[in-house]
Specification:
Elements: E1 2-4, E2 8-10, E3 16-26, E4 31-38, E5 47-50, E6 54-57, E7 61-64, E8 78-83, E9 92-93, E10 99-100, E11 102-105, E12 123-126, E13 130-135, E14 142-144, E15 149-151, E16 157-166, E17 173-179, E18 188-191, E19 195-198, E20 202-205, H1 209-213
Parallel strand pairs: 2-7, 15-20
Antiparallel strand pairs: 1-16, 2-3, 3-4, 3-14, 4-5, 6-7, 8-13, 9-10, 11-12, 15-16, 16-17, 17-18, 19-20
């Protein structure tokens, strides 16, 4: 099976629901636990789809095993929970500890019309609610997307993640393709067991850049 960002995702009936946006990887096992489907015509938001719902995956299309109607029950990839600061707080605190006010047009007259010093509508301080983003993916997993940096054991940037290959019908990554350069891409096929560590910003390898240079270029 092959996973690539931007690949169209279809229901078993052939209806396109969106495109692959990123892959959710368990670094401890090199297994893809979920894929994120980017919102499209039928999806109002990015959705986290368990990998067991993927029936097949190729360079051109990903086919799911569930109908699009079930997508309403799936969580969004990222959502923000808002909360207001306590009323006694004057505003958000800056790095210096001073209150930070956000001003918005008032929907009332200030001062009151009965006040002889009334000057008309003005701006009133408004404390914006604080947002706390949350990603609906399992703990200890990492969302990986096309363009994630790949770094050699000696700290060199050796390329960017382009796509993943999975073992047979399993969800375990066997290899991934990295691309180099801007205009002319020298692509390499790298075994997953060469990966030392993974985070959202970089895939760190246990081999040197000189070792990778000796790999033949990957051709489809």
């Amino acid at each position: 099976m092959e996973l690539k960002e931007g690949t169209s995702v279809f229901t078993p009936g052939g209806e396109e629901v969106g495109k692959v946006n990123r892959f959710v990887l368990d670094p401890a096992t090199n297994e893809v636990t979920h894929i994120v489907i980017q919102k499209g015509w039928l999806l109002p938001e990015d959705k986290v789809v368990p990998f067991e719902m993927v029936n097949s995956a190729s360079e051109d299309r990903v086919v799911l095993s569930e109908e699009v109607g079930e997508f309403d029950k799936l969580p969004p990839f990222e959502e923000t929970h808002f909360f207001r600061a306590p009323d006694e707080d004057a505003g958000d605190l800056s790095l210096t500890g001073d209150p930070v006010y956000h001003y918005a047009p008032a929907y009332y007259w200030y001062p009151a019309r009965a006040n002889p010093g009334f000057q008309g509508p003005g701006l009133a301080p408004y404390v914006l609610p604080v947002g706390e983003p949350q990603r609906n993916i399992p703990e200890d997993t990492v969302p990986i997307r096309e363009g994630t940096n790949v770094v050699s054991v000696n700290g060199d940037h050796v390329g960017d993640v382009e796509r993943l290959f999975l073992e047979g019908d399993s969800n375990k990554v066997s290899h991934f393709v990295i691309s180099q350069g801007i205009l002319f891409k020298d692509r390499k096929l790298v075994p997953a067991h060469w990966v030392k560590s993974v985070d959202e910003h970089a895939v760190s390898l246990a081999v040197s850049s000189k070792f990778l240079e000796r790999l033949p270029s990957y051709e489809e």
